[in-house]
Amino acid sequence: MELTERKLRILQAIVSDFIASAEPVGSRTLSKKYDMGVSPATIRNEMSDLEEQGYLTHPHTSAGRVPSDRAYRLYVDRLMDRVELSEREKRSISEQLAGNIMELDRTIEHAANILSEITNLTSFAITPKQEESRLKYINILPADESTVVLMIVAESGKVKNTVLRLKAPYPEESLSLLSKAMTYNYRGKTISDILTMDIIRSFETDIEAMSRLAESIMPNFIRTLESMLDTNLYLDGLTNIFSIPEYNNLEKAKMFLEMVNQRNNFKDVLASRDEGVVITIGSENREDLMQDCSLITATYHINGKLVGKLGVIGPTRMKYDKVTSVIEYITDNLSRTFTLP
Amino acid sequence: MELTERKLRILQAIVSDFIASAEPVGSRTLSKKYDMGVSPATIRNEMSDLEEQGYLTHPHTSAGRVPSDRAYRLYVDRLMDRVELSEREKRSISEQLAGNIMELDRTIEHAANILSEITNLTSFAITPKQEESRLKYINILPADESTVVLMIVAESGKVKNTVLRLKAPYPEESLSLLSKAMTYNYRGKTISDILTMDIIRSFETDIEAMSRLAESIMPNFIRTLESMLDTNLYLDGLTNIFSIPEYNNLEKAKMFLEMVNQRNNFKDVLASRDEGVVITIGSENREDLMQDCSLITATYHINGKLVGKLGVIGPTRMKYDKVTSVIEYITDNLSRTFTLP
DNA sequence: GTTAGCACTCTTGCTCTGCGAGTGCTAAGC
DNA sequence: GCTTAGCACTCGCAGAGCAAGAGTGCTAAC
């Protein structure tokens, strides 16, 4: 059944008011504050209908109405307005994300930081998966008599290095030889492809010194590659939840923090979300622990391909309009920064 | 005034009991549970003396006694026993810190992780300061037509790299030329020395291409060096505080988390502590926010020189004996791992 | 010096109460 | 037939009052 114009207006007013105040909103408040042109009694009747249709709930008889997840969904899909960021906010975002240093991970961490500051919620970001990323070259550099730096550079610009202590000293020239050989072998292959290859075997050589070196490097090469696959998860604004009335008791705050701190779980949840701006509200989330949270994520791109995610998590009562705009603005900005001209 | 043998025994019992139970301990409990050989009334008299001397306090008339910071100090200095770690714990520690991968930062992060798991407290670690660390070499590697990787290796084994996007394309050979020139210029100097030099000026050269390249690399070189100076702070077990009765209210838990999350402050606090095992109890801490926390830190070494710190923070009521032993064991282990044979 | 006994104090948990906010229903008005 | 005023009713919340329990401090006897 379609909602009448007036019902929509009432619903919008309730949602807005509740988002702002966190208090159940009553019919009297509504008619006074929002100039509905009808009496509280009429509004009560309408609210009663809305409740029947599942848009409102009632914490108890003598309290005002509270929007249900369904109401938030309607609000997000049809009722809320776009919010323009203030000039100050825009400036702060572009300033902090700019710079010619293309320190990918740092920049992303930064983005999460800005996001939590503006929204006063807990924000997070994950770096892109690198499965499809192709290796550019491998470099093994001397650092000490028996220490080397193994450096792997991917086409995506991702760089990873590991400091290795070798059991035996190595002949200097083997390093560059092995680097070249490995680069020759693996350049242009994706990380996941390489990991499925029989890497160790693929390095039998008749130059004995090099073969010995390869033997101690290879296992670490694999481990380093694996760690390149791992997405990083950044969290920021964790303590923001303490100023949110919904989490004004120890049990809830604890559950929230523990949920978010189960990082691997949380990474999986984020990874499985679609591209673009995605909003999931309360019970729309599959996870038990997120039944009264809302999650807003958006994706950013690197050179139009690799995809990372940025978002916030908070109570279902959040400023969907503002938060969505901010997240969109930041991810757009990120994508632009990360895309070569 | 020196405490009698019996007073010491009573004090020890009170501290132990309170550490275990978090409940004020009464005279009756004490005489029953700890087999003191005297009646509750006698114990009451002794407790009254101890209170006068500042070792005990009284939350209110009809509650048992609670140890003061002074009592904990005495306990830590004279009363507590060394605790041997279980075989399981020892094994778990050495297993997790071993491996020939000398990924310094990762290993340290790991150590903090183990520490919080064993102690059920919030743990932290800071990586060594690199001020005195000397540069080994600088390498600028091609990554893309206009992207390079700037890599700085210090003698301490610390490696830092930054991906830079240059405004103009660069001639390939300039990179290795500039790398060599920079290495020649800075090798063996400490990071802080270099930062006080007039770096940009020191790179005037008549090879024009190289001079242009240097111009865009140098500012980033400085920034990267600066970031090498920054110690990293790892925190773990943050949500452990929720299971500690002392933080069983929102206000306190919030304050704790916010205090620890002021990372720069917290880094400074840690950095200013002496070497070796240091225990500060409640009011012994200078910081306002730590007046009812205790902090235990110990230092680990890298090749006998550079010094990082590992520790826990929790309520003054903590298992000083166990925690101290664990921290000592882990830092010993770390120092051994990080020291070349 | 040690101990039993007892009055006293303070916290904690419980119930009871009144107040305020808001609803739902009914009957009258437009 | 929709809208509105009026009113009874419901519930949560905060404060008061009370009893139970734990532990002390003091006194007097051992």
Describe the structure.
- 2 copies of one chain form a homodimer.
- Chain A is built from 12 helices and 10 strands.
- Chain A has 3 domains: 5-79, Orthogonal Bundle (Arc Repressor Mutant, subunit A), CATH 1.10.10; 87-129 and 231-337, Beta-Lactamase, CATH 3.30.450; 135-229, Enolase-like, domain 1 (2-Layer Sandwich), CATH 3.30.390.
- The mean pLDDT of chain A is 90.
- A 5-stranded antiparallel sheet of chain A has the order 7-3-10-9-8, sandwiched between helices.
- Chain A starts with a helix and ends with a helix.
- Helices cover 46% and strands 18% of the residues of chain A.
- In chain A, helix 1 packs across helix 4 (69-79) and helix 5 packs antiparallel against helix 6 (104-119).
- Chain A is elongated, with a radius of gyration of 27 Å.
- The first copy, chain A, is α+β, with helices and mostly antiparallel strands.
- Chain A binds chain B through residues 100-104, 136, 139, 141, 143-144, 146-147, 149, 151, 153, 155, 157, 159, 161-167, 216, 220, 223, 238-239, 242, 248-250, 253-254, 257-258, 261, 340, and chain B through 100-104, 136, 139, 141, 143-144, 146-147, 149, 151, 153, 155, 157, 159, 161-167, 216, 220, 223, 238-239, 242, 248-250, 253-254, 257-258, 261, 340.
- The structure holds a DNA duplex (30 and 30 nucleotides).
